[in-house]
Specification:
elongated; transmembrane helix; 10 helices
Amino acid sequence: MLEKHASIQKCEEGEGKYKALVKKLTTTIFDYVWLNTTNIGSYSKTSNRAWINKLIEKEKIFLDNYNKDIPAMLLEYRKNIIEIYNTYKYSGQNCIEDTSWILESSLLFTLSVLTTIGYGHITPITWEGMIVCICFSMIGIPLCLLCLSKLSGDLADVFRSLFSSMIFFIRERYLGKNHSQNKAKIKPDKIDLNMFSIERLHFIKNSVENDLDSEPESDDSEEDNSEKKVSVPLFIVTIIIFVYVLAGSIMFKNLEGWSLIKSTYFSFITMSTIGFGDIVPGIEHFEKMENKNTVNRNLLIAGIYLF
C-alpha cells in the first residue's frame, strides 16, 4: 500500500510536468501559426502605427529564430518527455487506475526477490520501501534457498525412484524371460553331502566366534546399502530440463502472444535465475490498457512457474 500510494503521487507529479510541457509547446505552435497566417499590416488603420511596427519587428525576429530553432526545440521536447518517464514513470496513463503496484505484480515482485531473479519491472521508490526490501531479502532469501534445497532433494529422490522403477520394470519385462530360460537349461549336479556338512560346520563355528564382530559389520553393510542410490543419467536430466523449458515456452506463447523464441528465452532466463527484466509477463497487456483480468491471470501464472 505504501509503494502504491507513492507511485500514484509520483505519477501525478509527472503528469503535471507533462501537461506543462505540452502547454508550452502548444502555445509556441499557436503563435507560429498565428503570425504566419495573420496580416498584421491590416491592423494599421485601426491601431497605433508605432505599435504595429513594433509587432511586425517582433514577428520577424520570432519567425527567424523559430525556423532556426525547430530541430533544437523538438530534441529538447523529446529529452524532456524521456526525462519525465524515467523520473516519474509517466507516459500518459491514468495514474490511479493504472498503477503498477497491484496485488499480482507485487506477488511477482516478491517471488523475484526471494528467488534472486529480480526482473526490475517494478522497484521500491520510497526509502521505507527500500529498507523493507533489504530486510525482507536478508531473511527471505536464505529461507527460500533452504526450502528449495530441501525441495530439490525430495524431487531428486522422486526422480531416482521413478527411474529405478522404470529400469526394474524393463528388466523384469524384457530380460526376465531370457534369464528364466537360461536358468532352466542348467541341470543341478549331484551334491556331495559330506562336503556340504563340513562346510556347514565351519560356517557355524566361524559365526559363533565372530558374533560380536559380525554385528557392526552387518550394520555397516546395511548403511552402505542404504547409502547406495540409483544415479540418473545426465541425458535424462537434460531432457527433463528441456521439457520444462519447452512447456513454459508454449504456455507463455499462448498467454502473451510472444514468439516461440521469445518465450523460450524468457523461460530459460527465469529458470536460470538471471532475470534481465527486458521481458516480463503481463506488462505489454498492462501498457496497452487491456483487460485487468488478463494481466492478473498472466502475472499469477508467471509467479507459479517462477517458483
